[in-house]
Amino acid sequence: MKHPQETVHTKEYLPIILPFILVLLGITFLLTIRMYPNLHFGLVVLVYAILDIGFIFALILSFTSKLRSMKIISILTNSVLFVVSSIWTFLLFAAYGIGGA
Asked: What proportion of the chain, given as a percentage, has pLDDT over 90?
């Protein structure tokens, strides 16, 4: 018979899996926007802002994890990726403002 603490649900892994999915989506979007040169720049900024909100959601989910090691790893991962994504989104906003589009 298993001990109750040994049971790990797939919900526990969501704060770890979600950031990597968001990073893959961001990279995929970055590579595919080159195929559409007439794409409005505001849409690009909006997509990366939504990805930034996804990192905040993953960070909130990481606080609900019951496993201590998963909690620490997911909080660190989500925090670093959130900061990097926020800087990237800020730079996109700055380029959008400078371009005057």
From this structure: 42
- Measured in degrees and rounded to the nearest 5, phi and psi for residue 38 equal -95, 15
Token pair listed for 68: 């201590």
In single-letter form, the type of residue at position 22 comes to L
**What are 10-47's pLDDT values in tens digits?**
777 888 899 999 999 999 998 988 888 888 888 888 99
Dist CA 44 CA 24 (whole Å):
16
Burial 14-43 (b: 16+ CB within 10 A, else e): bbbebbeebbeebeeeeeeeeeeeeeeeee
State the sign of the Cα–Cα–Cα–Cα dihedral 74, 76, 31, 52: positive
Q: Which of 72, 28, 76, 32 is nearest to 55 (CA)?
A: 76
